[in-house]
């Protein structure tokens, strides 16, 4: 059966969103495309209800009420204030606007945040294809030598060269954005945030981003809690 947990107490961030979001997503450690929504909630102090589904039980669930909430019959699905929200990155952008944070303030900043986010999204797509392939023993090592290196290098270069990123750990220097969370989550899921950041050797700017995200009070508390599942 799915498990449901209530996280946090409703506060100012929930008032801006219009309620307490109910997140439906996989019980897949603290990983996956939808996990970044939980991460935003933890960082921003958004109270949320978390319903998790194992891969084994999800096929049955998607043919019932859960599937009725999303024409694609996929998760994450979020219930909020009588509305249904889908598509992880659209949710991140929408909530950032409502919170008045986690995004750029000028058009130049918003463009750059979008661009870095999209790099993270494209990278995740290739990662998932390789990692979940029936031929994972071949496809994932090849991914690690090719596509992963390509995206690590691209994001590292953007963060080093763009003046918006040169004064602090985040995409917009000292202001965290949803793009930082997206990039962090794919780095985490690829196993690059562990073991003293050994997987990020040669990518000092990305190591700085990881340290910045994990040093945030809400994220730090989450990583040290039972809610963090690895």
Features:
alpha+beta; Glutaredoxin; Glutathione S-transferase Yfyf (Class Pi), Chain A, domain 2; 2 domains; Glutathione-S-Trfase_C_sf
Helix-strand layout with pairing:
Elements: E1 3-7, H1 12-17, E2 22-26, H2 35-44, E3 48-53, H3 58-62, H4 65-68, E4 77-80, E5 83-86, H5 88-99, H6 107-131, H7 136-145, H8 147-161, H9 178-189, H10 204-214, H11 217-223
Parallel strand pairs: 2-3
Antiparallel strand pairs: 1-3, 2-4, 4-5
Helix pairs in contact: 2-9, 2-11, 6-7, 6-8, 6-9
Structure summary:
The chain is an alpha+beta fold. The chain has helices at residues 12-17, 35-44, 58-62, 65-68, 88-99, 107-131, 136-145, 147-161, 178-189, 204-214, 217-223; strands at residues 3-7, 22-26, 48-53, 77-80, 83-86. The chain has 2 domains: 3-100, Glutaredoxin; 107-216, Glutathione S-transferase Yfyf (Class Pi), Chain A, domain 2.
């Amino acid at each position: 059966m799915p498990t449901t947990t209530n996280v946090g107490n409703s506060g100012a961030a929930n008032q801006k969103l219009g309620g307490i979001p109910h997140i439906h997503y996989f019980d897949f450690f603290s990983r996956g495309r939808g996990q970044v929504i939980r991460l935003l909630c933890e960082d921003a102090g958004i109270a949320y209800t978390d319903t998790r589904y194992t891969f084994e039980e999800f096929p049955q669930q998607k043919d019932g009420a859960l599937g009725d909430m999303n024409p694609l019959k996929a998760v994450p699905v979020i219930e909020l204030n009588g509305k249904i929200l889908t598509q992880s990155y659209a949710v991140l952008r929408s909530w950032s606007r409502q919170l008045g944070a986690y995004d750029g303030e000028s058009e130049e900043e918003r463009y750059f945040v979008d661009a870095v986010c999209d790099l993270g999204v494209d990278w995740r797509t290739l990662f998932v294809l390789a990692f979940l392939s029936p031929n994972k023993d071949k496809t994932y090592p090849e991914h690690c030598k090719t596509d992963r290196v390509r995206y690590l290098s691209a994001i590292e270069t953007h963060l080093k060269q763009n003046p918006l990123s040169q004064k602090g750990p985040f995409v917009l220097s000292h202001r965290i954005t949803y793009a930082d969370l997206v990039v962090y989550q794919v780095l985490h899921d690829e196993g690059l945030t562990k073991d003293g950041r050994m997987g990020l050797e040669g990518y000092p700017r990305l190591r700085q981003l990881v340290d910045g995200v994990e040093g945030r009070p809400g994220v730090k508390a989450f990583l040290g809690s039972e809610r963090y599942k690895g």
